[in-house]
Request: fold
Amino acid sequence: MIVIRSKELRSFIKVVVPFAAVPALVTAGALVFDHNKHIIISMGVAIMALLVFASGYERKNTGTRREVIAAIMTALCFAGRFIPLLKPVAALTIISGIYLGGETGFLVGAMSAVLSNIYFGQGPWTAFQMLAWGLIGLIAGYLSEPLKKSRILLIVYGAVSGIAYSFIMDIWTVLWYNRGFSIKLYLAALQTAIPYTLSYVLSNVLFLYLLGKPFGEKLQRIKVKYGV
Amino acid sequence: MRSFSEYDPVVIAVFFVTVLSVAMFCGHPIIAAITLFTGVIYNIVLNGRQHMKSHLFFLILFIVLAAANPLVSHNGVTVLFVMNHNPVTLEALLYGINSAAMIVGVLYWFRNFTRIMTSDKLLHIFGRLSPKLSLVLSMALRFVPLFKGQAEKVHDAQRAMGAYKDDNIVDDIRGNMRIFSIIVTWALENGIITADSMEARGYGTGRRTSFTRYRLRGEDIVFLAADLILFGAAIAAIVTDSVEFTFYPVVRGSISGIAGAAGTAAYGIMLLMPVIVEAEVRIRWKYLQSGI
Reply:
């Protein structure tokens, strides 16, 4: 059983996984397995990335208030996934990342994926969805200063992350279907996914345009008022 | 005597991980067929005759996936016919059918998993892995109905003040936006109060306990041991290449030796274990009822 309660084990994971386990897995994938086993490698790397995050977050003293706000944003993302066609999950994750920091952004994105998939169906894609949304939030946190200042930049980031999300998920689709990567199938998958990609881009742009400023003001206000 | 959904969540999680790790990473048609077949059986055992629509959906998905591969992949030597100057080969078609069986089978198993792994069990496992993440998850789960209830209250209050009319679309959208804005502000303020209250009661000072208390019982351990032994047999067969199959350029494959046969049988029995548990529980229940 994996119980990451002891501090030593957590710090052990934090060092060993990114610097030893992931490279070892990738080299083993290249040398030992034949090319049909890419799917194991990619799945392993995705899960390890999530483990690294979990161990890092567990150790940090983030403060109860920040945790609760992360839970609120996750709940809003979850509720937003019930809106037909347009999904505000990525937009809300981006906003969380910008105003609450990259780590919270990652948390909101990843947790929204787990939570909403309880209803929408868990699948092998859950790990990839967690990683994709998490990274969108994390990078938004790194770009927080420019994104706060310019609304156009924010909307561009939303559009790019919508496309990136689709690209990441389609890599997974092809790996799973073909048990190996094929550029031809990948292009075919991207083509069939165009309506979805468009809906991601459109919802990100729309929700960031509508919610970006008021949400930012609200979060900023809470931060100033309570010193989160 | 409990049904499989009442077993310890860790046992359930281990079972599904072992099932899926073989199902997703082994490309043998017999393995895929077993996965699909047992997945459908277990789904019917769990849901009865409901969900006919989802069975239909999976059937259509199966056909689409099976047909997709021969249209984009032109490997293989046995050409069936030529379409748009591209050969459609038997090998690619069989590969497509195999992939479709694997994918639809895994989807069925995931559907069964979602059905059994309810949110409280998921939180139990997450709580062992990372108490903080589990807390965020469980709070978010609680917040959804809480926000919904509060939104209704705000809606009623706004209506009572005559803030907007329902029959006008523009007014309606504007009103809903206002409610959303109010809810977000309220949620954030309320969250801060929740956090302060948690800290005042000593959150973070000791170990967290969870609402449902699961204990490993004898049945859990027997199930877990059986699962791991059968999983080991299946993995041994796959690693030693006793269960091997290639589609390109020519379809060729076999289940060789005792290891291969034993591994395949072990995999089949492993996937039937929850159905066996369920059947035993139901028979026993019938028997007890008839004794009254």
The longest strand of chain B covers residues 79-83. Chain B is about 75% helix and 5% strand. Chain B has two domains: 4-121+215-290, 131-200. The beta strands of chain B are 79-83, 86-89, 243-246, 252-255.
